[in-house]
Amino acid sequence: MFYRPADGHGLPHNPFHAVVSPRPIAWISTRGADGRDNLAPYSFFNAVASEPPQVVFGSSNTKADRDGTKDSLGNIRETGVFCVNIVEFAAREAMNASSASHPREVDEFEAAGVAKAACETIPCARVGAAPAALECRLTRVVRLAGATNYAVFGVVTGVHLRDDCLVDGRLDVTRYQPVARLGYRDYAVVREVFEMIRPKA
């Protein structure tokens, strides 16, 4: 099969999301200028540089009460900060619950039953039990093709690692089993890893 996205794929569901998978999930926490906290998952997400550490996530769609965007990006524009919380398997249901579309005054931490903790370098809440969390300062928002598509870049100013996930000085993902997004309504979990050594030049 071959198709041009501009012409449509002719399938019951868009296969693009299934092709680019698995994708890590950024459980983004933000705080608006009004002090209200927000929590929402984004699966168009990744690290893009290490010195200094930087991340990007993609925001699409819109809410009627957010002027052409969603609560996360709206809050980031107001305050210039956000936190990326890593989703462990044990938190999958809470992460999914936080994806519900609520009015902007609703705190998704409370709605999804997620305990908060304070960030250290930015004025923002984070997921208290997350195996890892990246405190970020906004560096730029890039408008992408499409009516409501944006890429949000941030530099990492603080890193939280849960102590029980550190083994011999390394973050052991099998201790918390990160959740990844696939296509459609499908997800994956990492329970097994293998190592490969790069060949020398």
TrEMBL record:
This is Flavin reductase family protein. Residues 20-173 form the Flavin reductase like domain. InterPro entries: Flavin_Rdtase-like_dom, Split_barrel_FMN-bd. GO terms for molecular function: FMN binding; oxidoreductase activity, acting on the CH-NH group of donors, NAD or NADP as acceptor. Pfam families: Flavin_Reduct (PF01613).
